[in-house]
Amino acid sequence: MPEQVLELPTAWGRLAGSLLLPEGAGPWPAVLLIAGSGPTDRDGNTPLLPAPLDNLKRLAQGLAARGIASLRYDKRGVGGSICPGLSEKALRFEHLVDDAGLAARWLAQHERVGRVSLVGHSEGALIAALAAGAADAQAVVSIAGAGCRASTLMRRQIEGNLPPDLAAPAVEALSSLEAGQPVEDVPDALFLLFRPSVQPYLISWFRHDPAEVLSELEVPVLLVHGAADPQVGPEHALALHAARPDARLKIVEGMDHLLSLKGDIPAGTHVVAGEVAAWLQGLDVRLAA
User: Fold this and answer.
1) What is the mean pLDDT of each run of 10 residues along the chain (289 residues)?
2) CA 103 to chain centre
3) Is residue 62 within 8 Å of 70, Cβ to Cβ?
4) What CATH superfamily is the domain 3-147+208-288?
């Protein structure tokens, strides 16, 4: 199953990605794979971690083996997605939503592809839900997606991990950003988290409540979450399910946030690919009936 490397022109530069089709003529159900937060590339790798994960690449391969085509891409300004003049200060969360919509619409026009669903991991789950309407998506799959605003999740993590003398100003900064107000005096110890150049992005990100967004979607939803996720615990999947009671919920025992099953990423992505493929193929059958 050779991959096709793509470069999609955009108003800001180019969006680079990899198209992976199953064996045969198709047309195939297809998914757009959307990576999580930070400088994460199409394969799920980031320079913030000491070694490559390739979790999204492995997920794409697992889906192709089960008859599901996929397109995964480098986020704007990451890897091959060249964005001349891009500055952190100018980036907004909605830009990432726009990019997902563009990629999904391109995928939907491919001659060997049928309906397209959006599959997002972590932060990408919210992007998928927000982009679904403009992309005319068949369905949305949330993998390890948060069940609350990013600011609420950050507040919980800060209060549970930082000493009180740092937690207090951090929580105060979060409250200001939630209200759309930049923070001028950031303590040196918190500068990396709340540097002025990233604050506009955080403000744009904090506006969106994932549970509320999912509740308003008019397409089927699948929720996949690891029971051993230390960053975004399985209670988040339960919160999303409460907002969308008709969604399919799958909690994977032993799987963490990186889709590693008891330390084994190939095993974790194998389980996730099987769950996503079976659900999408069953969805196609139901819609055709």
Assistant:
1) 89 95 91 95 93 96 97 94 88 96 96 95 98 96 98 92 92 96 93 95 97 97 98 97 98 98 96 97 67
2) 14
3) no
4) Alpha/Beta hydrolase fold, catalytic domain (3.40.50.1820)
Burial of 20 (0-12, 13-18, 19+ CB in 10 A): buried
Structural domain boundaries of the chain?
A: 3-147+208-288, 150-207
pTM over 0.85: yes
Q: How many degrees, rounded to 5, is the angle at CA 2 between CA 281 and CA 101? A: 55
